[in-house]
Design a protein that fits this description.
The protein has about 180 residues and is α/β, with parallel strands linked by helices. About 45% of the residues lie in helices and about 20% in strands. The protein has helices spanning about 1-10, 15-20, 30-35, 45-70, 75-80, 110-115, 135-150; strands at about 85-90, 95-105, 125, 130-135, 155-160, 165, 175. Strands 1, 2, 3, 4, 5, 6 and 7 form a seven-stranded mixed β-sheet that branches. It is globular and about 65 Å long.
């Protein structure tokens, strides 16, 4: 990694103008090296910063890849980040949040916002009948929400997954809408 080698030898550049010539990010580490003329060992800090940078880069690549796969699976760009949720009062203390089109990791925060706004002590029926894709991250989160909501005096179950086929045998595997066979 040439950047590690370059950062490891940054102590050669003691003046501000040299720091800026090397790069603006070096200005962040300048005060601790100027104070009392002390130069601290740079390798641990450099290694940590570079490692965090690569971890962040791989996380962003993973999110972008997952988003591209959802687009290929016919999730509209609008539904990648925005949840299509409506809440219907069924009476007798039962609420039915209905999620339409796609339930993915990227729009779960919008779904969670709707669920968190619901009053406690009710029974929730989360309806996924009108979704054509439910990814594994989304399947995991309502499982945890169910236990949190139960602690607050409510109950919950999910319906509408019967017509969707799981992509593996795991109970919380991603699910896709079953395609109807075309009659010839």
């Amino acid at each position: 990694m040439p950047s590690l080698f370059h950062l490891e030898h940054e102590h050669k550049y003691r003046f501000l103008n040299h720091q800026y010539d090397v790069g603006p990010k070096f200005l962040v580490t300048l005060p601790d090296r100027i104070a009392d003329g002390i130069t601290f060992p740079d390798f641990p800090r450099t290694f940590t910063l570079e490692s965090c940078q690569y971890i962040l880069m791989f996380a962003l690549v993973g999110i972008r890849t997952k988003s591209i796969l959802h687009l290929i699976a016919s999730v509209s760009p609008k539904n990648l980040c925005r949840a299509n949720v409506t809440v219907e009062d069924q009476g007798h203390g039962t609420l039915k949040p209905t999620i339409r089109e796609a339930a993915t990791f990227s729009n779960y925060l919008g779904v969670k916002k709707h669920l968190d706004q619901l009053p406690t002590g009710k029974y929730l029926i989360i309806d996924l009948t009108n979704t054509h894709l439910v990814d594994h991250t989304f399947m995991e989160n309502p499982y945890h929400f169910k236990h949190d909501y139960a602690r607050r005096g409510g109950g919950m179950h999910t319906e509408g997954l019967e017509n969707q086929r799981p992509v593996s045998d795991h109970p919380r595997a991603a699910r896709k809408a079953a395609r109807e066979k075309v009659k010839q």
